[in-house]
Amino acid sequence: MTGGVQTTTDASLPIPLYIAVEKFSPSEGQGWDDYIAWSGLAQLDEVVTLDGMICPFVLEEIKDSYWDHIVKEDGMLNFFTNFDFFMKELGTAQNANVLGVLRNPTLEAVQQGLGDRFRFVGYDLLDQDHSISALTNCGGFPEVFDNAELSTKGLLTDYDRAKEIQRDLRRLHPEERHADCNIWAIFRMISA
Length: 192
Fold this sequence. Notes:
By secondary structure, the chain is α+β, with helices and mostly antiparallel strands. It has one domain. It has four helices and four strands; from the N terminus they run βααβαβαβ. It has helices spanning 30-39, 83-90, 107-112, 159-172, and strands at residues 17-22, 96-103, 118-127, 181-189. A four-stranded antiparallel β-sheet has the order 1-2-4-3. The two termini are 30 Å apart.
C-alpha cells in the first residue's frame, strides 16, 4: 500500500489505472511542427504519453468525490482506479485519448491486456514524479536509445528493450532526475 491505495494485487498483477489526456498530433499545426523540429522524432504521427506537458490531463481538477477512486500518491492524483467512475466523470470529452495503464508491469500482465475495450499502444518511461517522459520530452539520450527505436506514437513496443533502456538511463545518468524512470504500459480505449 502506498498513500492509501493498493497499486498491485500481487507481484505479477498490477492494478490498471485510467487517465484521459489531450491528443497531440499534426492537427496542432505549428505547435506540432515546433515539437518535431525540437525532438527530431520525424517518424511520429501522434504522441501518446502520460507526460502532462505534452498531453495535458483532461480531468485536471481533483474533486472531493474523486478521493475514493484515484491513486493517492504525489503526482498521481489524475490516475483513476475505478473505470466506471472515471468514465462517468469524463463524459464525452473531445480530442482525448482515454488510456488504461500499468506501472512497472510484468510482460505477462501486458500480454493479458485490459480487455476488449483497450488496445496496447506501447511503453513509456516516466520519471518518479510521473510527469516527464524520458522518451519524448528530454531531448533524447543517444547513448541509451536511438530516437528511431520509438514507434509512430513515441513509445517503445518491446518489453525487454524498455527494461534495458530503463536500466541504462539510471546507470548512465544517475544525476538526471528524469532518467530515474518507471515503465508504463499504455493501452488506448478503442470502444466505450
